[in-house]
Amino acid sequence: MKQPNHRSVLLGAAFLMATSAVGPGFLTQTTVFTQTLGASFGFVILASILIDLGVQLTIWRVIAVSEMRAQDIANTVLPGLGTFISILIVLGGLAFNIGNVGGAGLGLQVLFGIPVEVGAALAAALTIAIFLVKEAGKAMDHFAQIMGLLMLLIIVYVAFTSAPPVGEALVRTVAPTKIDVMAIVTLVGGTVGGYITFAGGHRLLDAGIKGRAALPQVMSSAVSGITVASIVRIMLFLAALGVVSQGLPLAAENPPASVFRLAAGEFGYKLFGVVMFAAAVTSIIGSAYTSVSFIKSWHPGIRRHENRVVIGFILVSTLIFVTIGKPVSLLILAGALNGFILPVTLSTMLVAAYRQKVVGDYRHPLWLAVVGVVVVVVMAWLSGQVFVQQIGGLFS
Known about the structure:
Layout: H1 7-21, H2 24-37, H3 41-66, H4 70-77, H5 81-112, H6 116-132, H7 136-161, H8 166-174, H9 181-192, H10 196-206, H11 215-244, H12 255-293, H13 300-304, H14 306-324, H15 328-352, H16 356-359, H17 366-395
Helix pairs in contact: 1-7, 1-10, 1-11, 1-12, 2-9, 2-11, 2-12, 3-8, 3-9, 3-10, 3-11, 3-15, 3-17, 4-5, 4-15, 5-6, 5-12, 5-14, 5-15, 6-12, 6-14, 7-11, 7-12, 10-12, 11-12, 12-14, 15-17
């Protein structure tokens, strides 16, 4: 049976995934790596985009064909595995959401001069209001699209004003002078790690866009999400490259803010506040919605009161930030945890793609399987190294 063309939902799922990926960490990572790698960072972006596509296409396809959420697929592959993955996703999502709330507060501080804690509370109130709307799914879709387009337009403007060496960036994208594998892993983890991988796929499932007949629509939405996130990253890279190539120093405490200020003056600094707020507040929504989608299978009450549980998730994140502050050690561990989540979830989906009781007679593309296996091995090895180093640093 042919699926209806839910254009708004498809765009909403794409932007939910993209804006979930474009958070405060995304802005900082892109700026810092541009500062250290220069034009060669273009190669890192290209490699991460190709990996992101392979990961997202596999996961979204399996979710659509199986018509099950990721945790239910995992429990079918191995009883208890879905519960384990759900715990990882929720813990990682909560930890990162504390940083997202702080980022939203920082954005409002830049714009209006209010304390970060007050800004964080206001941002939380805005996101909670979205989930109080009767049709919260549609409200979330529209909000993600508006904020995503706003971020994109501002970053394109700043990239233009910074006058980057576009020719050099194009050359170094295919012929880099140096390659940083850890930078690739960091970007991959930041755009398809943890809850981000499942944000769009679960949104489409909740909207009823599923089954083999819906695969073309699902794939189009997945590619659109990666494309939006990639364009934002490329434009931010060019903006930072324009500043760095002029030899201008970036402030260590807030590198992305320096890029905006140096490229477009005080007006640019205010624009940074808008981008930081938009990036953080959409990441709060994506983190809360997707994390809760992983525990909906635990109890019928969670499914019936999903929006209330999402609101509770946001409130807990905000209270931790306002009362305790940004828990650095927790965020460090969450970063390492995010690195572990991707190989665990992706390997599970790869196994599920060949289990008849999960996908029926669906045949998974060989090239996606090959890309998936490579990503699993590399991410597992590197994230293991990072985790050991960070654990050692915390207790040394």
